[in-house]
Amino acid sequence: MDLLVVLLLCLSCWLLLSLWKQNPEKGKLPPGPHPLPFIGNILQIDVKNIGKSLCSLSKTYGPVFTLYLGMKPVVVLHGYKAVKEALIDLGEEFSARGSFPLAERINNGHGILFTNGKTWKEIRRFSLMTLRNLGMGKSGLESRVQEEAYHLVEELKKTNALPYDPTFILGCASCNMVCSIIFQNRFDYTDQTLIGFLERFNENSKILSSPWIQVYNIFPALIDYLPGSHHKIYENLAYTKNYILEKMKEHQESLDTNNPRDFIDYFLIKKEQENHNQQLEFTCENLVATASDLFGAGTETTSTTLRYALLLLLKHPEVTAKIQEEIDCVIGRHRSPCMQDRSRMPYTNAVLHEVQRYIDLIPVDVPHAVTCDVKFRNYVIPKGTNILISMTSVLHDDKEFPNPEIFDPAHFLDDSGNFKKSDYFIPFSAGKRMCVGESLARMELFLFLTSILQNFTLKPVVDIKDLDTTPITNGFQHIPPPYQLCFIPL
């Protein structure tokens, strides 16, 4: 009996301590649902569909509210006005990367996606400059994308108009573009190295989006001590990082500082320059981690968007017909599409924007954090507090996009059929943490899709009434349901 009393007293003290740790900042933070000791509001969130949970809670607590994920407070921003006020108007204050325990253990303070402070600023500035030097947004990189589009079309011809799942081949095309930037070479679609990359990227994407990973990130102490699929992530990333390390060593032996060939060369040159100044940001560890971040971010997102675009075009053949009519008028059948064509193809441009808006690929942005105590509206958000951005609330705003759950290219067209921009279009996020590869991704989406539709008719395998375009929500991102189609040569 004495032991039971001691246990009850210990449990009571632990509960009181948990509540005490949660309460001091609540007077400064925005309101939100009352948290339970230790687990916080985890029972009020669907870890399989966090985005939907945030939208539901915002109806009760407004556009700015606080959740407790475990014992740590997280401020949620819901709706365009709140997101703009934070990421654009107070961009510097909201520019830190929020806690993402699994990624922190993987990268160990290196790279571009999950770092903060001076390291992040230096690596991001260098990466943007290097991508521009390598032609991002210019004709130099455009020619590489056109070359890859040619290989993509040639591979699709080999399907012989039979039912085909495009997942793998679209992944090859996107991955090859990242390879051309980092290593200055592409792979044949049958190359085992390329296949190895894609298999591991796809597996990691599934694992990172699983409910268990959301739980691990909320209770990071579990990561080190419990078995689970998160250990497989370490193995898969080790494969990529080891390959990058081998390439780095090869580049060191053949480096010509006057003629950098790719991202690795530029980094090695910068590393040599900064070593003389005793800078610690440009290290081998940071090179491997940054290249790995570019791989992961640049392959999966673009290929998934393209895969979803093809599914939506199958579902809406009238949209496909209008794009192909525009291709015939502007490009024709005898030359490759180029980026100059986009400005003369408002309907195609609107369709690509609507695809990204509709699919809402990343419903909740990768966590941000505030760099200092921030007065935000009538609240005070303490330095280091995690910030969750509801991307769904902006991309599916019903005032900006009437009937946001419907796929409709008219969302980006004016009454005269001209392309219409929208400040609410933020699939690449916004502010200082927006995607560094946005220009490359936009180029790939336009050139790959127009090249496919220039050469093929898309034929569904089932009746279009039976095609389901509802996103599969798997925790971290929206992915299309599995499907097949036939690429019929024109």
* Quaternary structure type: single chain
Series of secondary-structure elements, N-terminal to C-terminal = HHEEHEHHHHHHHHHHHHEEEEHHEEEE
* CATH homologous superfamily (4th level) name: Cytochrome P450
Through-space gap between termini: 83 Å
Outline the low-pLDDT stretches.
Answer: 4-9, 11-27
CATH T-level topology? Cytochrome p450
What is the rounded Rg? 24 Å
Q: How many separate domains make up the residues?
A: 1
Keywords: Endoplasmic reticulum, Heme, Iron, Membrane, Metal-binding, Microsome, Monooxygenase, Oxidoreductase, Signal
Protein name: unspecific monooxygenase
GO molecular function: heme binding; iron ion binding; oxidoreductase activity, acting on paired donors, with incorporation or reduction of molecular oxygen, reduced flavin or flavoprotein as one donor, and incorporation of one atom of oxygen
Subcellular location: Endoplasmic reticulum membrane; Microsome membrane
Structural notes for this entry:
Its cofactor is heme. Heme binds at residue 435. This is unspecific monooxygenase. It is an enzyme of class 1 (oxidoreductase). This protein is an alpha+beta fold and 490 residues long. It is built from 17 helices and eleven strands. The protein has helices at 2-22, 50-61, 80-89, 101-107, 117-133, 139-157, 167-182, 192-208, 211-218, 221-225, 230-254, 263-276, 284-315, 317-330, 346-359, 391-395, 438-455, and strands at 64-69, 72-78, 96-97, 368-369, 374-376, 379-381, 386-390, 456-460, 472-473, 478-479, 485-489. The strands form four sheets. Strands 1-2-7-4-3 form a five-stranded mixed beta sheet. It has a two-stranded antiparallel sheet with strand order 5-6. Strands 8-11 form a two-stranded antiparallel ribbon.
